[in-house]
Design goal:
globular, two-stranded parallel sheet, 43% helix, 13 helices, 450 residues, 3 domains, 24% strand, 15 strands, alpha+beta
Length: 450
């Protein structure tokens, strides 16, 4: 969420608040005039400043969460689903969304005790905060502005109550009410201990988490699962690797090298975020992945040359550009449009993993390059579970399903041991099982480390 975006949302919420206040002033004036009462606006503003701030902030939250989205709708009532996704996925975006939903309601919880005495009782603030979150989720669902999620209700309410406890701790300490103070510290201390325990647990593990892991097994009681061939009971030794993440200097050197080799012209227009950098030139576009050093290039037509593809010329051009080494295996394309090279790790040495896709015309001018290749450092060998043990896990539902499994029978006919990147940038071994049911084809991934 960019700084400019937040300023825009703040400005619009301010406009809504001003309109709300003007309407309130108008109605208050009518009421007081009809009852022959004097109006002291400074007194009213001072008395109700907490109400005004609470209304303003809630409108801001409403604007950000509801009225700044494209139309889509969904519902997810599975509690702790966002925590499971963030924990196993290791995505910074997932953690940011989770924490944002908590932090966003903290100011509301801090202002409510100053609005009315009722909100100084924990249940008063709890009901109000839950109701405020429920209203947002309902608006999102009814008007197709987002997903109604049980976790959002939990996180919003948790954040609001955290703000409530902080304020009440301060008020209790100022008035020397020590018994209530001890009660209000319970929630912040509990959150701190849980967060610290999760942090220690995560970083004490030798490797990161995989997106295919789950807390709870998938229910397969209504599905008959079988494997067509005999499964091996041997536990293979697998080489473990870690992704080499390029630093800023290496990224700058890569960009400069590509600009020279691809003859990119003029000062580029740059669009950048934490993951990638997009650079637009007069004769092409370059996209750099800052996390693993992969990149892609697409030529912009209009320079008078054709864009016919010739994979033999692409092979020659790839070698000339220095993109191919002896470890790459060439795959002849079916449509003769692209030349594709594949790098695989040998399980014992540092190496590359990924694919290079290259297309160019008869004249050798590059049309398209997708260099999806990453560098990995060899770490050590680990003993993986056997195929038989992995399939046993599958039968017991110890995997994450991408969609609901409703088939009565699934027959798996192929299995392979592959690598997947975990949340700490290690390549972990996983078993992939391919199978078929009456209507669908299935691909299920089982982590291979014990």
């Amino acid at each position: 969420m960019s700084y400019e975006y937040m300023i825009g949302q703040l400005f619009e919420a301010s406009l809504y608040t001003i309109l709300f206040l003007l309407a309130g002033v108008f109605l208050t004036t009518i009421y007081l005039r009809t009852h022959n009462k004097q109006i002291n606006w400074l007194y009213l503003a001072g008395k109700y400043r907490s109400v005004l701030f609470t209304v303003f902030y809630y409108l801001l939250v409403l604007r950000i969460t509801c009225f700044s989205r494209i139309h889509f709708q969904g519902i997810n009532l599975r509690l702790f689903a966002s925590y499971e996704d963030a924990w196993f996925g290791g995505s910074s975006h997932a953690w940011q969304q989770l924490l944002l939903n908590i932090i966003m309601f903290i100011p509301l919880g801090m202002t409510l005790p100053f609005v009315h005495r009722f909100f100084r009782r924990w249940y008063g603030s709890l009901l109000t905060l839950f109701g405020g979150s429920l209203l947002i989720e309902t608006i999102q669902f009814v008007f197709e502005l987002g997903v109604f999620e049980a976790d959002d209700l939990l996180n919003n309410t948790l954040g609001g109550m955290l703000g409530f406890c902080i304020v009440m701790m301060v008020l209790s300490a100022r008035t020397k009410r020590w018994k209530p103070l001890a009660g209000y510290t319970a929630l912040p201390v509990m959150i701190l201990l849980i967060s610290l325990s999760a942090f220690i647990l995560y970083w004490s593990k030798p490797y990161g988490n995989l997106t295919y892991s789950v807390f709870h097994p998938y229910a397969l009681s209504q599905t008959n699962v079988s494997y067509r061939h005999k499964l091996s009971k041997k536990q293979p030794m697998i080489g473990m690797y870690r992704l080499r993440t390029p630093n800023q200097k290496q990224i700058r050197m890569l960009i400069r090298t590509l600009e020279i080799k691809l003859k990119l012209q003029d000062q580029p227009l740059i669009n950048e975020n934490s993951i990638q950098q997009v650079r637009g030139y007069a004769n092409g576009q370059l996209i750099i992945n800052k996390e693993n050093g992969s990149w892609s290039y697409a030529r912009i037509a209009g320079d008078g040359t054709n864009q016919d593809n010739n994979w033999l010329m692409a092979k020659h051009t790839g070698e000339k550009l220095g993109l191919i080494d002896s470890a790459a295996k060439l795959q002849k394309p079916e449509d003769s449009s692209y030349a594709v090279w594949v790098w695989k790790l040998d399980g014992t040495h540092n190496g590359k993993k990924g694919t290079l896709m290259l297309s160019c015309g008869e004249n050798g001018i590059v049309n398209f390059i997708d260099y999806d290749v990453s560098q990995y450092t060899y770490v050590r060998k680990e003993k993986a579970i056997s195929q038989n043990r992995a399939f046993s896990k599958l039968k017991h539902g110890e995997f994450r399903a991408s969609s609901a499994i409703t088939a009565k029978r699934i027959v798996f006919n192929r299995a392979a041991l592959e690598y997947q990147l975990d949340s700490k940038n290690y390549l972990q071994p996983v078993y992939i099982f391919w199978g078929k049911s009456e209507r669908n084809e299935w691909e299920i991934v089982i982590p291979a480390l014990p």
